[in-house]
Amino acid sequence: MKNNNFILKEFLDNAFNLKSHLMEFLSIEECDLDGFLANAKINLANLHPGDALSDVSDFYTKIVGDRHLADLAAWHITSKDYITDTLKLQQRFSRDLVLDFGGGIGTHALANAMSSKVEHVFFVDINETNRNFVEYRAKELGVEKKITFFKSIEDAQISKFDTIVCLDVLEHLADPASQIEIFKEIMDCNSIALLNWYFYKGEKNEYPFHIDDNQIIENFFKTMQSNFLEVFHPILITARAYKKIR
Ligand SMILES: C[S@@+](CC[C@H](N)C(=O)[O-])C[C@H]1O[C@@H](n2cnc3c(N)ncnc32)[C@H](O)[C@@H]1O
Fold it and tell me: How many domains does the chain have?
């Protein structure tokens, strides 16, 4: 196990060897990697079919393939300070059984698996390529015994989690209110959920896959306010910690 400062330093130094993991997993040459990452955000946005998409989750299961790896990797590399703050946040709260819902390229799940306070991480992501990539990374980083991988929460067959990490995911779901109701069911009175959201498609539609429907958002906030209480932390203002109210 590694101490918290060492884990943060490893992330700041090389994002847990992210570039070499990408090259190996996707068979990309070093000289092609920077171009692959530089165009990732626009490439992902261009893949989105707009209103023609009837089921939001189809984008992640049928369309993005390995393109989301590139987009998320580019974001984690260029926004290291923000991601580091989210790692500090989970270091403060994560313990015992951790659910990482919509875990992406695995930065948070891998960091949690390195923590001595965490017994096991359940990585859930609807995208098979993401799951396979993070499984590969866990082996490379020597934490594979502390993470298991699932397409859905039900598949994990765990009735209670001590910590739920769901960062930059709720805006990707058709019904974020139902998702937090599911989280409530798998928390006890001491569990903590780390959540954030960005219900915005961007100034130039950079995030066409984000939900921004007013009714869906209002329903989400009503559900938040009637089921969860915020637990203050001083680490960053965009991601919050919650316990369930009853
Ligand atoms: C913007 S990424 C965030 C990844 C990661 N949490 C982070 O902070 O870097 C959103 C992730 O949610 C996943 N996702 C989208 N819909 C999902 C669903 N219904 N169930 C599980 N994962 C989902 C996507 O595959 C993607 O990995």
Answer: 1
| Pocket flag, ligand 1, residue 89 (CB < 6 Å) | no
Give the Cβ contact number of residue 178 at 10 Å: 13
Beta-carbon contacts of 202 under 8 Å, excluding residues fewer than 6 positions away, are 210
Q: pTM higher than 0.85 for the full model?
A: yes
Q: Which band of pLDDT confidence, cut at 50, 70 and 90, is reported for residue 158?
A: very high
Burial 185-201 (b: 16+ CB within 10 A, else e): ebbeeebbbbbbbbbeb
Protein residue with its CA nearest to atom 18 in ligand 1: 126
CB distance 156 to 122 below 8 Å: yes
- CATH value at residue 41: 3.40.50.150
Q: How many helices (H) and strands (E) does the chain have?
A: 12, 7
Pocket test for ligand 1, best of 71, 129, 171, 172 (most atoms within 8 A of CB): 172
Terminal CA-CA length for the chain:
34
Average pLDDT for 202-208: 94
Mean pLDDT of 76-82: 96
The range of the structural domain enclosing residue 189 comes to 4-244
The protein residue whose alpha carbon is closest to atom 10 in ligand 1 is 169
CB within 8 Å of 189: residues ≥ 6 apart: 243, 244
